[in-house]
Amino acid sequence: MERFELDDGLKDEIRAGTLGEGFIKLVQSVRRNGKSFKIAVRPVEIGGVAKFQAEMTDDGRVQVKNFDADGMSAGLEEIIEQKGARDLHLMTAKGDLHVRVTKKGHVLVSRSAEMDREVSVKPHDRVKNLPLASFDSAPLLRVTGIADGEGKIRASMRGKYDQVNEFLKVVKETLGSFGVGLESDGVCAGHDSAKALSDSAKTLKDSNRPFTVVDCGCGKAYLTLALYFYLAQTIGFRNVRVVGVDRRDDVIDSAKKMARSLDVAEKVLFVKADLSSFSLKDVAGDDRADMVVSLHACDTATDEAMARGVEWKAKYILSAPCCQHELQKSLASLGKGGAGVAAANDFAGLLRQSILRERLCDILTDSFRAMILRILGFRTQVIEFVSSEATMRNVLIKAEWGVKPGQAGPVSEYLNLRDYWKVTPWLETRLGRLLERHLARFD
Ligand SMILES: C[S@@+](CC[C@H](N)C(=O)[O-])C[C@H]1O[C@@H](n2cnc3c(N)ncnc32)[C@H](O)[C@@H]1O
Fold first, then answer.
1. CATH 3.40.50.150 domain position(s) in the chain
2. Residue whose C-alpha is closest to residue 299's, from 333, 343, 339, 329
3. Which of 5, 173, 229, 363 has the greatest count of CB atoms below 10 A from its CB?
């Protein structure tokens, strides 16, 4: 028997408990090279058919898949044969089995006393768990045109509907416990309570002071309006105010009309302005935002949203970037005139291909953005908030204020990457002295 391997009796016990009657949940957590991987499986009923639902969290990235019995049986073998240190918890109607495999390969087993637990497999109703189904969203969906007159989601708006739902889930997770997915028994945690909110978010939620959210590059205001209802009605913020900013007259005019027809014009404000010159003070009375969001704000508008978030001392910045052009120009000329020779040589084969160069630029730009926010005191995480089949623009940078700014590690990581590529990210230029004083100490 190999080190880390479970003995046959234990393997059979896990198989019988998971695939037999009375199965409630199986969770296995593995930690390797500083990264964590967790899989949680539970029985569900989808369209009247019994299935297994697996929620896999790979270093913060969550994926949910449903399996039939055969698929589950194959997947279970992989769970059982997983190498390395791990914790496994099997819950069945009869009791709990805990297996801990230590770093040295010792297998420690404990079992609860025998129980007679009730097992109820609830029909898995995805719609019920969606943020946009957690409040009476029918008027919002109709007014924004996401739904038709009969309340059905229009086929052409399905993508936007999904994006808004997923963005709202990230908002809730961010308010809950930054960097840690909310423990849930379903695809997403219930949206009917604020029990998972972190202490600081709870304070903000119960405060009389308005919780101010700015949606930068709000466009047709799908997210802006949904954010208001979700925060006010589902999460239960006592006083929330959402400001949508866009430089286009037409979208701002129609967003204002929508806010009026939904009777929220006093709480959801729309301003036609360029993000760089927009004055929050003029609309909100002061220059403080609690949360700054942007969903596919074009090119450097994402950087501008982040910079404004920093200037407005936002606690949370959530940004799903869009197209990215700025770095491409620099990389296209890399190596010419002596700049970036090392990178130009090392990556010559990749840079020659325009599609790959474009993707590399996206990745580098988002890395720089996340690193800059980290240097400025934000805990940051880059996630995929919708699937890549839904949109190629599926990356979201989450940032929560709260770590010591200007720490040596993040600064040197940033400088190393920046200097290797011999580029100056737009966000660095934009933030000027705010960032420079941290970089200057190590440059
Ligand atoms: C791709 S749309 C996304 C709209 C919306 N967030 C959504 O996801 O439906 C980008 C929006 O950003 C706005 N925008 C881009 N740059 C801007 C800037 N510098 N200031 C204000 N708005 C900007 C555009 O006018 C456009 O409405």
1. 127-440
2. 329
3. 229
Mean pLDDT of 69-94: 93
Which backbone phi and psi does 432 adopt, to 5 degrees?
50, -125
Residue whose entry in the numeric block shows the structure tokens 């037409």: 250
What is the Å distance from ligand 1's center to 246 Cα? 6
> Tell me: the pLDDT tens digits for 262-301?
999 999 999 999 999 999 999 999 999 999 999 999 888 9
Regarding the beta carbon of 304 and ligand 1, being less than 6 Å apart is answered: yes
What's the gap in Å between 250 CA and the centre of ligand 1?
12
C-alpha span between 435 and 415 (Å, rounded):
12
Atom number, ligand 1, closest to the C-alpha of residue 304:
19
CATH number of 127-440: 3.40.50.150
DSSP β-bridge partners for residue 99: 88, 109
**Strand, coil or helix: what is 382?**
strand
Give CA–CA dist 136/392, Å, rounded: 30
Whether this model's pTM surpasses 0.85 = no
Terminal Cα-to-Cα distance of the chain (whole angstroms) = 53
